[in-house]
Each structure stands twice: as structure tokens, then as C-alpha cells.
Structure of L-aspartate oxidase:
Amino acid sequence: MKKVIIVGAGLAGSYIATQLPADYDITIITKKTRIDSNSMLAQGGIAAALDEGDSPKVHEEDTLKAGKYHNDEQAVKQLVTIGPQLIDDLIAQGMKFDRESDGQLSFGLEGAHRFRRILHAQGDQTGHALTEFVQSTIRNDIKWEENTTVLDLVVEKGECQGVVIRNRKGAIKTKYADFTILASGGLGHLYPLTTNDQTITGDGIALAFRNNIKLKDMAYVQFHPTLLTKNDKCYGLITEAIRGAGAILIDENGNKIMEDTPQKDLAPRDVVTRKLKAWQQKGHRLFLDISKIQSFKQKFPGVSRNLANHQIDFERTKKIPIQPGAHFFMGGIKTDLDAQTSLKRLYAVGEVACNGVHGANRLASNSLLDCLVSSNRAAEAIAKTPTAENKNNDYTVDSPSNSDIKSKLPSKDVLLEKTWKQIGVVRSKTDLNNFLNWLDKFNYKELNPKQLSSKDLTIANLCICAELIAKSALAQPKSLGANYIKGV
Ligand SMILES: Cc1cc2nc3c(=O)[nH]c(=O)nc-3n(C[C@H](O)[C@H](O)[C@H](O)COP(=O)(O)OP(=O)(O)OC[C@H]3O[C@@H](n4cnc5c(N)ncnc54)[C@H](O)[C@@H]3O)c2cc1C
């Protein structure tokens, strides 16, 4: 029987569990519980060319344009053609996307899409509804290991043979499998303000780096202009759909920030984000003015609930306090169209992977679709690949010996302050070089994950991601998409 380990319980990890043949021995390992993921937080929707008049070809063109033509064209073709079929399958299984009063699917429009092709579920709670639905279809005999962190990969005889974990009791174990699938998401918590779930700390990227697995497009981090912020802490995303419905960005004096920019408040995310950052640097505070939106609470129930939960008096003031912050990672572990990484028997799906589909900037609502498509392709490829030879089926318990290397790591607060300033929204060659020189004082690359506390492991993983982003940004010949370098 083929044995498979899936790392991560977001949409990509959950969906691949439903795509693998029924007789496989599957374990899903996830850091916290099955509801802790970015997938559960996705608000905007999932893009698919399913409406009359729309076509995969136009979706492909929109995706390439948003990605500044840095995308892998074959990966984009695969996304836009297989994606709609997988959505049809989910609907046939009972997934309920929002519909118009006549029963037809309701398609929303988002920035840079030329057609209405964004499907929603439960209004602005699409990610939650979709991931929960997919999880409800996972077979009962699939094993879940929650509150368990994958620390490293087991690499033997030039192939991936499983993972090293720290389980809920703190025990470190080696788990063997024929196939390992990384679905561990992006790296939002490399920055002080982020929309991402607490568990998203670049672990998959760091363990790929430690095992010399190829990475791609590390420079490209997407920042979102509108994070709900209070006392400089982020309390979730304020979806772009709110600007689509008529909200405008203003400062504390009511000045319209985007007034002089082409496309104004609906300019591309990176353009809006840079403008907001410049405004902040002049000492202003930032708000979304929602006074033009009728029936706000009905139209945006999830956002309204979140605002109320955080005591934001939006109904009276008609203003939402926002700041830009980290949102999505276009780069990641390099894969082919079947989600195969450069290490045999290791696959990467969803946001941790880089199959080239997003290019230098992601088109809104394409990432949930990529979770489905990359997982579907990986499942088919795995089904065609024979089991590993001489695989060790037993779990072995390692007792981590004390390290002779004393860890020298920055504090997380200092690291995040620097990432925001030096490898954030606006970069410069000087800042990138200064950042790398500063990182050089620490020994995060020499440390053994098994010998680190969870806190230190997170810092070490974030340092690895930060180094890779800075180096990749410096290596780009010119600014492109989300990698904006002053003067280049
Ligand atoms: C607020 C928000 C709104 C968004 N809105 C949209 C949208 O409208 N449309 C869209 O297409 N995209 C949207 N995105 C992006 C999209 O949600 C993500 O790209 C996508 O859900 C990623 O899915 P994933 O399964 O790859 O990773 P995630 O859903 O992030 O799941 C990763 C999983 O891996 C686990 N994990 C991480 N490290 C480890 C470890 N070391 N050991 C074990 N487990 C680990 C995590 O706990 C988690 O369970 C949004 C993102 C955010 C944050």
C-alpha cells in the first residue's frame, strides 16, 4: 500500500487527500488544528472562467498580464483549463457557491480580471466554506496529526522518504512514507503586519533550503494595501471588493490618497501599497471611507463581524483604520506541472510551491484555484509512480542530543522591524545589502531544527526566508511586479 504524508491542512493539503486513490495510507500533519490556515481566511473568492462569454484563454491572458509575463505559460494554461473542471466536480459533490435569485452561479469582478469570474461562498467567507467542504469529504480512515510540527525531511538515497516531526507531546519522531507532499503555505509572518494565519512562518521554504531543494522567484512577496489595524496590530484583511463597491482610501484629514493615480483606488495592489506607504512616511494615518456603500453589513457580513469583534465603530464613523502588510507569496519551492520538486518523491502544492503560475504578481483569486489544480496534478502523478524500494515502515524515536553549536539568533521583533524596512514594499540595493550584512551576524543556517525550541525554530526559518528574498531581489536585473527596487 502506498504511504503518503501531507504537511499542512489548508485547501491544498486537504484537497490532495481527497484526490489520492482510496486504498492509500494517508496522514495529514498540521501545526495546529485543521482550521488554522490561510485557506480558512480567504475572503475574495476563487476565479474560474465558467460564465457565458468568458473563456480560459481570457483568464490566461489576465493572469499573464498581472504576473508581468514572468509566469510559466504552461502552468497558467493548466490552471485556467483544469481549474473550471475541478470546480464543476466540487459543485457536483455538493459544494455550495453563492447563486443569483434565478439559481445561476453568481460571478464577482475583481481588479485586473476582464470578466466576472470570481465565485464566492457565504459572501466573503469563500475560503472557509470551500476548505470546510473539502475537509468534510476526506475519508474517515485518513489519519490526522494535529498540533504537530514538521521540522525536517528525511532524505535517504537521494530521495525524500518522509519527515521529522515534533508531536503534540513534544516528542521528536521520524515518519517514513513513499511520498511526501508539502502543503505548508507561505511566509506572511516574516513581516510585522500580515493577513496570514499565525502558523504561516515559511517552514516549508526553510526545510527545502536546508535540504538543497530548488527554490524559485523568492523576491516576489505580495503586500496587500488594506489590513485592518488597531494599535499597529493586524486583525485581518479588508477585502479589495470593498473598494470595488465604492470605498476610498483617505487620511486622517479626509484627503483622498489615490486621487491622482490612474485607476485611483482600484489601481493594482502593488501601486496602491507603495502610495500608502509613502503617505504613512509623511506621518499620516490611513483609513477606508465606506460612506458611499449602502447596506455594508449585508454585503460584507464577515468583515462587519470582524470589525465589531475588534470594537471598530465603523457604523458611526464610516471609516475603517487600515495599513498595508504582507499577504501572499508568489515564489517558493520550484515544481514542474505535476508539483514534483527537485527532490524525488517530494511534491509541493499550493502557496509553498512555485510552479510559475503567478509570475511576478498574483492575479486576485487565482491562489485557491492553484491549490486545487496543483494538488490534482500531484495526486495523478503519485498514482503513476511506484512505491519506494526498501522503505522503512516503522516510526523511530530520535532523542535529540544537545547541540555543541550555541544558537545566535536575532529577536523576532528586531528581525520583523528590519524585514519591513529593508526587504518590504519598497526596496533599495543599499537596504538589501545592509540587511544581508546584518543577517550575516547570526548562525541560523548552522542550527539543527531538532535541537531548537519552537520559538527559535520559527526565527531560524524566518531568517532563512529573509536571506533568500533579499538575495533573489538583488539578483533581479530590474524592478518587476511585487519586487520594487528604487532606481532599478
Ligand atoms: C486573509 C487572506 C485572504 C485571502 N483571500 C484569497 C481569496 O479571496 N482568493 C484566493 O484565491 N486566495 C486568497 N488568499 C490566498 C489563499 O488563501 C492562500 O494562498 C491559500 O489558501 C494557500 O493555501 P495552502 O493550502 O497552500 O496553504 P494554507 O492554507 O496557508 O495552509 C498551510 C497549512 O500548513 C500548516 N503548516 C505550516 N507549517 C507547518 C509545519 N512546519 N508543520 C506542519 N504544518 C505546517 C499550516 O498550519 C496550515 O495548516 C488569501 C489569503 C489570506 C491570508
Q: What stands out?
A: The domain at 1-220+330-399 is CATH 3.50.50.60 (FAD/NAD(P)-binding domain). Residues 374 and 391 are 26 Å apart (CA to CA). The first strand starts at residue 3 and ends at 7. Residues 454-475 form the longest helix (22 residues).
